[in-house]
Request: fold
Amino acid sequence: MDRRSVRRHLGLVGHATSLYDDLSVLDNVRFTVRARGGSVGSVEPALERLGLAGRLRHVPVSRLSAGQRRRCTLAGLVACDAELWLLDEPHAGLDAEGRDLVDQLVGDARDRGRTVIMASHDLDRASAVASRQVTIEAGTAQRGPAQAAPVTSEASGVG
Amino acid sequence: MWADAGLVAGKDLRIEFRSRVALNQVLPFSFVVLVLFAFALDPDRGILERAAPGLFWVAVLLTSLLATQRSFAVEAADGNRDGLRMSGLDPAGLFLGKAGAVAAQLLLLEALLLVGVSFLYGIALRSFGLLALTCLLATLGLAGAGTVYGAMSFGLRVRETLLPLLVLPVLAPVLLAATRSFEAALGGAPRETFGWLGLLAAFAALYAVVGLFGFGPLLEES
Amino acid sequence: MTTTTTSTSTARRASSLLGWASLILVGATVGLGLVLPKTQEQAEYSRLIAVHPPAAWASYVAVGVAAIAAIGHLVTRRASWDRVTIASLEVGAVFTAITLATGSIWGRPTWGVWWEWDARLTTEALLLAVLLGAVALRRSLAPGRGRAVITSVAALATVGLLPVVHFSVQWWRSQHQVGTLLSPDPASNADNPYIVAMLLGFVAFTVAFAWLVVQRVRLEALEEAYDEVILDRAITDRRAEARPTTEVPA
Reply:
């Protein structure tokens, strides 16, 4: 299996921001998109979605707050529109508005047929958007009582 | 592959353009080295003039170390390594892009240093074509080898001390050949440069091959 | 990941046979070098011809073996190849150091100084630096597949570098008319009594190289097994810590 061709379909957002400090928001997102072979046209809409349009576009990433940097990384993810999203604690470092935004993005992606795997400690939030949930305890996956409720959507926790 | 190389080189050069590290730090560093040589070697006895080609290339070698370090320091920040791996970029293209950006910066620095050497050490420059060719071939080798060894020490916390140890002995043949080539060109014996230029080309080719094929595995595993 | 290679009795017997053989051969070489009578013009130190070229030869063999093992690892991704690579690099560094030391000692009475920029010595000096760098790199890396790949690439780069270094230094020194140290041409030195010792030395040092590599490979295998045991234990401890938990919150 060719790792690289598989990776073009993945999007990863983890604890680290994977941003180039000296480049602006726009430059960073553009690089991410073009590295993946995507079209540059998706950059602007993604920035707008994440609330980074306007003057913020040209600000070097090093001058942004932690929350804004997280949004920049997410903008890259959205712009690439990968088929499989891997999210590790995406709510961390964001204010309430930001967390809602993440939930919306995950919901949108899910509705568009994308697969999202999210690891989260915020079970309430994660449960609200997820269609399946796996809990990991001491290194093994558990079936929790939450499985019993069919209507409830839960987060997939890959710890 | 070439598209990816262009993208990465563009990104690196844009970072340099914004941060101006090469301009503000590396270039003054190389000039300081030239001045230090003058202090060490006592310009009055004509030693500087005779040693000028060698001193120029030692200064370039040390400069290339800084340039390579910087090239990888940019990627070492906050998860960029994983970002690069996950991006789906062709590793050979990534190698070419990074080495290319380093080479471009080095060539510019060399041009300025050459002016500096001519000025500070009183060297009359001639055979510009041969000098330029030497610089080009040597720089390709320096950038290629530096990028390969930079990738090997990429993930290490001791990168700053390990990279010079790894790379300087490897670059010794470049120093040797480039200095001899300069001496021949400046000394009015252009035909003697050909052997040395051939060596520089062989070195550059060796590390181009190692880089193109090895960068992928190195990136995965570091 | 890797399985511990416990030596079978055959392997152990072969290894100790190799050990005895190298001991005897090297001893014979040194003995011959010391015992054979010298000709009138030669000085005592020319006895070093029995060990200096063989040591240099062994260092080149080491680099060659390292390269082959590196290719072997990159192709098969098996740890056994990787162990041979690092073993050859390290043993190669030892022989390179011996070459430099014997060369320097030979040079002292010949040139009056402890060092001359002789073509072969300079090449060996650079080679030593490159090998030490590769070993230092290896030691900085955590055990695993990544380390093996990086070591392999480093070994291949080293072997590719060697001819470049060799030619550049040769041409450089040829311009200054300094002959290569101890370039023994058996045909022209037919009356050199130590040629016999030197030829024996080539064989002896090759065998000694093989034995040293075998020992180092074994050591590497044991170290890797040890690391795995430590890792397993750490994981088990961590799991045990996590076990007594409350119910999973719904």
